[in-house]
Design goal:
The protein contains 9 helices and 5 strands. It is about 60% helix and about 10% strand.
């Protein structure tokens, strides 16, 4: 073998050795990246669990404070008032973990649109429905007696305004009280397939976050003749809501 042939063979052997070392380093980097991503996912899951526990704790503390302040009967019956207004044009019903989004939506309605909604906390849609049905039944079989009023009637009958109810269950849960709520009734829920993501992203995906509550409220007022429907389009643009977003029930 000539000199140049030997040198060429040495260079090729050396290049092959370097390439193998590079491949080993790339494998190490990829392994570390995968390990890092796994740790990131674990941290994200822990963070979401902490948020869940905190929201549940805040709700429990809030309810306990309200019980202490003498409205435990309303809590047990399924509905109590958080905020009242002099001339309500719309009411928001929040429940469970979505109570925070409901309160945030109320702030946005006030700040961005000059709308001051009444705010209510639903502790049990099922209990409200059961009580309303039982009241209807009693009135049906006691026509000679003075009609009774359900808890929903007692609390909400003073104002015939649109209602937006938000729940982190499927819409059917909050829709069950619709027939007993005065005025137009709109329910938001997490209908669709199960997903894994942050709470903020999931609420946006299922269209139950503060921005969709605001949008629903504005559209409800427009349908009720109290606002121009163009305001709903303005809200879509203001909060970067994509009109071409796929429905959560189809993804």
């Amino acid at each position: 073998m000539g000199f140049f042939s030997r040198k060429k063979a040495e260079v090729e052997e050396n290049n092959e050795s370097i390439l193998k070392e590079v491949e080993k380093e790339v494998e190490k980097v990829e392994r570390h990246q995968n390990e890092f991503k796994t740790k990131q996912d674990e941290i994200t899951n822990i963070t979401e669990k902490i948020k869940t526990v905190k929201e549940e704790y805040d709700t429990t503390v809030s309810n306990l404070m309200l019980i202490k302040n003498g409205i435990n009967e309303d809590i047990i019956k399924g509905l109590y008032k958080i905020k009242t207004t002099d001339k309500p044009t719309i009411r928001l019903l929040g429940s469970g973990p979505l109570m925070g989004e409901t309160l945030a939506a109320a702030d946005l309605l006030k700040k961005d649109w000059g709308i001051d909604p009444g705010i209510w906390n639903v502790t049990s849609f099922s209990e409200l429905r059961r009580n309303a049905e039982e009241t209807d039944r009693w009135n049906l079989i006691h026509p000679d007696k003075e009609p009774k009023k359900s808890h929903l009637e007692i609390k909400l009958s003073n104002h015939n305004v649109p209602t937006v109810a938000s729940s982190d269950y499927v819409k059917m849960v909050s829709e069950q009280i619709g027939p007993y709520v005065p005025g137009p009734y709109y329910a938001l829920g997490t209908d669709g397939f199960g997903r894994s993501d942050t709470r903020e992203n999931l609420r946006h995906f299922f269209e139950v976050d503060r921005y969709y509550i605001v949008l629903t409220a504005i559209r409800a007022l427009a349908l009720d003749g109290q606002m121009e429907m163009s305001k709903a389009d303005e809200a879509m643009k203001k909060y970067n809501l994509n009109p071409d977003k796929p429905s959560p029930t189809t993804v």
